[in-house]
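Revision sheet: structure tokens.
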Amino acid sequence: MKNLSQDTAFVVYYYKNNIYSFNALIGALETDPYFDQFAIYFIPKRDELIHSLKDIINKHKLVVIGISFFTTQLWEIYDLITTLKKRYSRKVIYLAGGPHPTGDPLGTLKLGFDIVVVGEGEETIIELLKKIDMGKNFTHIKGIAYLNESNDYFFTGKRNPVKIDDYPPFPVKNAKAGAIEITRGCPYVCYFCQTPYISGVYPRHRSIEVIRKYVQELKNHYGDLSDIRFITPNAFSYGSTDGKTLNLGKLKDLLLNIREIIGNKGRIFFGSFPSEVRPEHVINETLELVLKYANNDNITIGAQSGSQKILDLCHREHSVDDIYNAVNLTIKSNLKINVDFIFGLPEESNEDIDLTIKMMKDLSKKGAKIHAHSFIPLPQTPFEKKSVKSLSEVYKKEIKNLISSGYAFGDWKRQERIALKIARYLKNREIH
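Predicted:
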């Protein structure tokens, strides 16, 4: 076999906000022997990426730079890609993927990228890097978007959903241990969320047998003090056929199997970041499983609003009472609870604001902690074109009071600023 490492290199912008995406992609490459000798570089910092590329380009005939990003990172990625292309245009292919490129592939290409991976990337990245390395035409590969020489836009079509059991949750050979994705896909289709539009509405669960394999890898890597975390749109939905009806037997089986591997010294974090839960799934039985098998002292639920009207407009499919019930049961079980709220949601009236403020105060008095967010429109969601306004002074005052009293936290101020820019961009697709 030829020495592939001297031909094509894959440079990954391994930025802290986007490592989960690349863990899955590099894990997928490791399943194909073609990439056993393939040169992969993990570069975590912007300046390091800019300055180290010169040496990498000199070592290889061709370099593919992979960048995954969220819509909130749009301007920093635009600045990065502009800087990179000014310095390095020869022997470099710029490849984008992740939530924003999937939702806005044409806009992403206009930023300066050569190819966009649209949707789940495990199968696409294997085919694409092979074709590029062999010098073959890749324009027929499913799941990509590109501009041809005449600047015409082409999208090759969606792929079928990935069977997540077929691919590792993180790279083993490249030793990038991390959280284990246990479920992909969400049936709830909340109108502000990209997840169901990227991963589909039918839940796909990684089997316990395969999860055990990668828990063992984490124990081999970290030893007896392993921390096991999960990636899932809704932790308590694991094993559910529809993602809505709980499968308590599968949940218990999952946690019991993991505990069997890591023992009492290892730690399981379940129902806390990055594996939050829905409020209606917080019941005595699910809380008991957390208390018996997990080590987190808190869970996180998504409330989003204290107004039933707004919950219904967002297509949340749970009630205000579900939120109160989840908090009451959690506090009663001696677990802490973080409750996500999104301020400035579309169609929100003064009455809806008052209801949300009342709920936040009620919950904080019970012992809950409020996680404050500002509404951000995202591409390929029903709320993509919704207007964004500065938060009302009533909101700002109450949030600040809760934060200063230790009852709330969150990056809502920065989100409010970036949301206004994103709304303008999504209306005219102009980055400037």
